[in-house]
Amino acid sequence: MVISYNLTRTRRVMANPPAPNIPRVEIPPMNRNLTFQNVDMEHIYHNCWIIRAKVLWKAQIRVNAMGNQYLRCILLDQHGTKMEAIAYSNQAFRFNDMLHTGMTYDFTSVGFNPTDMLDGHFWYICMDYVIALHSRTEVSMSAHRISSSICPPCFPQFGAILSLRDKTITDVVAILVYAGKIQHQWDSVYRRHVPFVEIALMNFRREIIFLRLSQQHAGHHLYHLQRTENLFEKIAVTYVQLN
Questions:
Q1: Which end of the chain is flanked by fewer CB atoms within 10 Å, N or C?
Q2: Rounded Cα–Cα distance for residues 76 and 80 (Å)
Q3: DSSP letter (8 states) at residue 134
Q4: Sequence-distant (≥ 6) Cβ neighbours of residue 231 within 8 angstroms
Q5: What secondary structure letter does DSSP report for 117?
Q6: CA atoms lying within 13 Å on the CB side of residue 71
Q7: Pairing of strands 82-88, 129-132
Q8: Are 174 and 238 spatial neighbours (Cβ–Cβ below 8 Å)?
Q9: What is the pTM of this model?
């Protein structure tokens, strides 16, 4: 019996190891315009966003519990939503010189941080995020002025307002049921008597909240408030601080 066969030359080949399965991370688009109501978890820690806002309030530079100097502001966007902004160390002095209360600015390359971080800060605005102003943030005067009297997109219920911490800033809308007369109280800081007016607002559940309008708001709005009291009209009061 004859068996035929062929001899072939072989070569050992080393296969490449399979590539690891790395999940794809979506990088947010650069220089995206945002309003405060649209800020979400996908926007935090990226420092690439553009906002337009008016400076409603600016505090003095202070030192937190960790020894860091910081500057805090309250900003208002074009839709009437308020959010706090914070800058640390050298940037606190930089933005303190740049920003002026009552002016509208265009901010580029800003970031957003969660407000539930354990950094020892008390936030005046009941929001989930705070604006982070850092070394790459640029500020320019905006050609579009934002009015302080712009109405917020939504208002909290009375129960939510009463559950807020002291010194928290909020907005309220309800029916005016009482407007008092102008009174005066002694201001120990400015050492003078400051005028104020007390009003009462009632919601549809007949719950009542008392507000105290001080200084320039007392005389400026007194006639309108007393006229509205007799008509039981609905009014909105923004930038109210609990005390």
A1: N
A2: 6
A3: -
A4: none
A5: S
A6: 22
A7: parallel
A8: no
A9: 0.70
Residues with Cβ within 8 Å of 130's Cβ and at least 6 positions away in sequence, in order, are 83, 84, 85, 86, 112, 113, 114, 115, 123
CB 55 within 8 A of CB 71: no
Q: Which CATH architecture has domain 32-141?
A: Beta Barrel (2.40)
What's the CATH superfamily of 158-241?
Answer: Nucleic acid-binding proteins (2.40.50.140)
E strand or H helix at 184? strand 183-187
Which run of H or of E encompasses 109? strand 104-114
Give the residue from 119, 14, 103, 19 showing the smallest Cα distance to 58: 103
Mark residue 220 as left, alpha or beta (left: phi above 0; alpha: psi -120 to 50; beta: remaining): alpha
d(CA 75, CA 148): 10
Per-residue confidence of the chain (243 residues) as pLDDT tens digits? Answer: 444 444 455 555 555 666 566 555 455 555 488 999 999 998 988 889 999 999 999 999 998 878 889 999 999 999 889 999 999 999 999 999 999 999 999 999 999 999 887 566 778 888 899 999 999 999 999 999 998 777 777 788 888 888 887 888 888 888 888 888 888 888 777 788 888 888 899 988 888 999 888 766 666 677 777 777 777 788 888 878 887
Helix, strand or coil for residue 135? coil
Give start-end residues of each CATH 2.40.50.140 domain in the chain. 32-141, 158-241
